[in-house]
Specification:
308 residues, NADH Oxidase, 4-stranded antiparallel β-sheet, iron, cobalt, 4Fe-4S, epoxyqueuosine reductase activity
């Protein structure tokens, strides 16, 4: 006879697939023992730069039972964002994840649907949805749930899929069947370390966030450091270099989420268009995009830094 745990787990995974998620893995909620010293060390070395929010909620980051009362399971989900077309070659670059609508909203809706499905099909289940804006170590949970391994560029990598996907979680007070972590398949490859324009991957599996182009172009609110001049490889918002060179991303296939399709103008923009972008164009082209995080002022600062 099929036990309830097994039945519920299968129900959830099937529904996750129907909602368009690439994959779904489940782990037992509890303290992330291995990650604790790693996170502490990373913060002590100031590798988070000006991202002071990373210091907050240290305990909650490592223990989902502090986020959801009586949490039993962490359901990790991946959603593909790899585009079918990329930007014009004569153009400043924005990270592929920002081509379409802001993923926070797109994924939150899907997670709400999944939680509603669980509550309708299974009964009284409490839970919370998380999309990288809360103190949850997404990559650690996804790896623990067997969805991939954490690569030398500190991104989650998956065989036959690559790494161009978002990670999200539902933390629920429901016992389920748990998946096992997979093995590391980076081998002796150092493509990401060798290619990083700012040498932010300071050792295999260690990224100094305060040296990353994504940090400079999105998180840093002050002036960009002069010593980084000429090292941004034309990235005006985010950076995909360590993913673009990763051999596992040869297997990336285009997503099928219409909300992630880019505004066609983004693909046609030339450097000149970026340099002359007006408030009106910015609002129209990036209406619901993650690029709005930098505001027009921040984007112009980044572009000026690239062209000076």
């Amino acid at each position: 006879m099929i036990n309830n745990k097994s039945k519920y787990t299968q129900l959830i995974k099937t529904e996750a697939q129907r909602l368009g998620f690439l994959s779904c893995g489940i782990s037992k909620a509890g303290f992330l023992e291995e990650e604790a010293p790693r996170l502490e060390n990373w913060l002590n070395k100031q590798m988070h730069g000006e991202m002071s929010y990373m210091e907050n909620n240290f305990d909650k980051r490592l223990n989902p039972t502090l986020l959801v009362d009586d949490a039993k399971s962490v359901i990790s989900l991946l959603l593909n964002y790899y585009p079918s077309e990329i930007q014009n070659s004569d153009s400043y670059n924005i990270s592929k994840y920002a081509y379409g609508q802001d993923y926070h909203f797109v994924i939150k809706e899907k997670l709400k649907e999944l939680l509603h499905f669980i509550q309708t099909e299974i009964g009284e289940v409490s839970g919370r949805a998380f999309v990288d804006s809360a103190p949850v170590l997404d990559k650690a949970w996804a790896a623990k749930s067997g969805l991939g391994w954490i690569g030398k560029n500190s991104n989650l990598l998956t065989k036959q899929v690559g790494s161009f996907y978002f990670i999200a979680e539902l933390i629920v007070d429901l016992d389920l069947e748990y998946d096992y972590a997979t093995t590391d398949h980076c081998g002796s490859c150092t493509a990401c370390i060798d290619a990083c324009p700012t040498e932010a991957i300071v050792a295999p599996y260690v990224v100094d966030g305060s040296k990353c182009i994504s940090y400079f172009t999105i998180e840093l609110k002050e002036n960009l450091p002069i010593e980084m001049k000429g090292k941004f490889d034309d990235w005006a918002f985010g950076c995909d270099v360590c993913q673009d060179v990763c051999p596992w991303n040869k297997f990336s296939k285009p997503h099928n989420e219409p909300l992630f399709n880019p505004n066609p103008e983004i693909l046609l923009f030339t450097n000149k268009d970026w340099e002359e972008i007006t408030d009106e164009t910015f609002k129209k082209v990036f209406k619901n995009s993650a690029v709005k995080r930098t505001k027009l002022e921040g984007l112009k600062r980044n572009i000026n830094f690239l062209k000076e």
